[in-house]
Amino acid sequence: MKQITFYLDFISPYAYLAFEELPRALQGLSHHVVYKPVFLGGLLKHNAVLGPAEVPPKRAWIYRHVQWLAQRNGVVLDFPAAHPFNPLGLLRLAVASDAAGLPNRYVCETLFRHVWVGGADAANPQRLVDLTQHLSPVQDPGSDAVKAQLKAHADDAIALQVFGVPSFAVDGKVFWGLDALPMLRAYLEGDAWFATLDWDGIAAIPSAIALRK
User: Fold this and answer.
1) Half-sphere exposure of 170 (CA within 13 A, CB side)
2) What angle separates helix 13-25 from helix 105-116, to the nearest 10 degrees?
3) pLDDT by residue (tens digit) across 47-82?
4) Contacts 24+ apart (CB under 8 A), 127-136
């Protein structure tokens, strides 16, 4: 059985759509999913890139695109009252739901739907209080221990060269994006194409322009 680590942030509509699609995308395959919440803003800062919603034309396109994808896939997607928003409260609550900082699928589903179903303010303090009472976390979401676990998830992601969400890590390989799910399935099925690909060496292809480090 393969273990897949799903790096996610509840702020991302693509992560939400991938979360909803994952069971169908991997149906029939022997696998186990570990959910690791990470602060997308921290990953973007580490890689010195702007967030998708920080580029106005790109933001508008993404919002159109995810609504089209949602209706095509039969997924309810209502934009929260404001987006982007600060997701740290939700991320810490997810981490706090488990002693090891690894929320189960129910917790992740509850948090994703808190953001993406109903169109309410995802960061509203009272809604967060109500959500915390509903999920009854085993740790204090505001504790230093939970903050350290969330940072450790980000450190793990960065070590694997995860640069965005959703990302799926298996066997040291990272598959990024909702549209990578078919590729992930092919890898898990043992597609012979992967034996022809120099997975790590491909990064050594020369660039004709300077790359940020």
Assistant:
1) 23
2) 140
3) 999 999 999 999 999 999 999 999 999 999 999 999
4) 128/89, 128/90, 128/93, 131/90, 131/93, 132/93, 134/110, 135/93, 135/97, 135/107, 135/110
Would you list the DSSP string of 120-165? Answer: --TT-HHHHHHHHHHH--SS-TTSHHHHHHHHHHHHHHHHTT--SS
| Residue 159: both structure tokens together | 């070590």
pLDDT tens digits for range 166-186: 999 999 999 999 999 999 999
User: CATH topology for 2-204?
Assistant: Glutaredoxin (3.40.30)
pTM for the model: 0.96
Q: Who contacts 141 (Cβ-Cβ below 8 Å, separation ≥6)?
A: 89, 92, 93, 95, 96, 132
What would the two tokens of residue 42 be?
Answer: 């921290």
3-class DSSP assignment, residue 4: strand
CA 191, 192, 196, 200 torsion-angle sign: positive
**DSSP state letters, 79-112:** --SSSS---HHHHHHHHHTSTTS---HHHHHHHH
